[in-house]
């Protein structure tokens, strides 16, 4: 709720409605839209391609059908709160950063008249909210995010050896919430998403618009040199030599972009002030 003021900064609903894409020049959408609006008598200057044959045959006079663009936006936010996301070395956990970014995006969509839904992946039962519009819907989304994160932390504290559930299960649930033409935004570090995740994500990208927020902790990108002890969920322990991971996030985003899934990298340590322009850019293409 406290991030709502950041979502208002730089918002220009009229520009997004007209242009639909980021840029310095505002242009109106081309085409006549797909939703029927009215049937009226044909007049000089009307495009003959829009003549309504049924009304013309019924009345014996030329009629044309007008259309308008359907601008209803339904966006489902998928937050990854699985055990691997409950990790962080600077400022916040990766799961917290994912929730902050999704909340910022959700407030922007709601302010522009869109509908916002939620799907949360965790070690327990997934949290699901169907897309709804208005301030009340976003209050429900933020409350569900906070409760789901608290439950994920409690479950991890009580059972530190809990296994990592596949992300593809929640991905399928999120797809079921979306109508035709909907949008799905996934916020995750994509650690161990499951054997069928990439295949399912690629198939869904052919039917709905998918955007990715790839959450990245500073320790992943630039680890101090040295040896690091580790313990796995199965009880195995050992020591590993640190290795740099510079460029891995960019390479992963480029790979998904080739499949039609655009995304942004979210650096946990930078905070919501830095997330706001990223979410504004993401909102412009939803």
Write the layout of secondary structure elements.
Blueprint: H1 4-8, H2 13-19, E1 35-41, H3 53-59, E2 63-68, E3 74-80, H4 94-111, E4 115-121, E5 127-133, H5 135-158, H6 168-177, E6 183-188, H7 197-204, E7 209-216, H8 218-221, E8 227-231, E9 237-241, H9 248-258, E10 262-267, H10 272-284
Parallel strand pairs: 3-4, 3-6, 6-7, 7-10
Antiparallel strand pairs: 1-2, 4-5, 8-9
Helix pairs in contact: 4-5, 4-10, 6-7
Structure description:
- This protein is α/β, with parallel strands linked by helices and 286 residues long.
- It has helices spanning 4-8, 13-19, 53-59, 94-111, 135-158, 168-177, 197-204, 218-221, 248-258, 272-284; strands at residues 35-41, 63-68, 74-80, 115-121, 127-133, 183-188, 209-216, 227-231, 237-241, 262-267.
- The protein contains ten helices and ten strands.
- The two termini are 22 Å apart.
- 30% of the residues are buried.
- Strand 8 and strand 9 form a beta hairpin.
- Helices cover 37% and strands 22% of the residues.
- A six-stranded mixed beta sheet has the order 5-4-3-6-7-10, with helices on both faces.
- Helix 4 (94-111) crosses helix 10 (272-284).
Radius of gyration: 23 Å
Distance between the first and last residues' Cα: 22 Å
Q: Which percent range describes the beta-strand content? A: 15-25%
Q: Biggest sheet, open or closed, and with what strands and sense?
A: 6 strands, mixed
Number of discrete helical segments: 10
Secondary structure: helix percent: 25-40%
**Beta-strand segment tally:** 10
Give me the strand/helix succession. HHEHEEHEEHHEHEHEEHEH
- Alpha-beta classification: alpha/beta
Shape: elongated
Average residue pLDDT:
84
**Low-pLDDT segments, ≥5 res:** 11-31
Largest sheet, order of strands side by side? Answer: 5-4-3-6-7-10
